[in-house]
Write a structure and sequence with these properties.
The protein has about 130 residues and is α/β, with parallel strands linked by helices. Helix content is about 25%, strand content about 40%.
Length: about 130
């Protein structure tokens, strides 16, 4: 008999405006790519459900990912604390054609760790 377990996890995408955060989420969740710039206002939460199996196929996990696309504007920083709470990981996104977008990620990490303490973080060069 197969064993099933359900869980939900919250992941953030952080980075400067127009680095491709929303495009990455759309590609991962909907398998759609569009190079039009869509400004995120506040935070947009997208769900992606994955079914994972153990190597012996006897255990299955239904993982519901809550992917938060966080707008990076100074006015939004007032509510970042509530948006960051409960996060288990973050993906930091920069644009290779704009080096400053990678330089700015250090401050994003500091702000994140001030709220969540240290969590896994992955840099993506896009």
């Amino acid at each position: 008999m197969k064993e099933y377990k359900r869980m939900g996890k919250k992941v953030l995408l952080l980075g400067d405006p127009a680095v491709g955060k929303t495009s990455l989420i759309r590609k991962f969740v909907q398998d759609i790519f569009d190079d039009k710039y869509l400004e995120t206002l506040g935070a947009k939460v997208t769900n992606k459900v994955l079914t994972l199996s153990s190597p012996d196929k006897k255990k299955h996990i239904e993982l519901k990912m809550l992917i938060w696309d966080i707008m990076d504007q100074k006015t939004y920083r007032l509510i970042q604390k509530s948006a960051f709470q409960g996060t288990i990981g973050a993906i930091l996104v920069g644009d290779l054609s704009r080096e400053e977008t990678f330089e700015n990620l250090e401050s994003r990490i500091s702000e994140l760790f001030n709220i969540t303490h240290e969590i896994p973080v992955k840099n993506i060069k896009y």
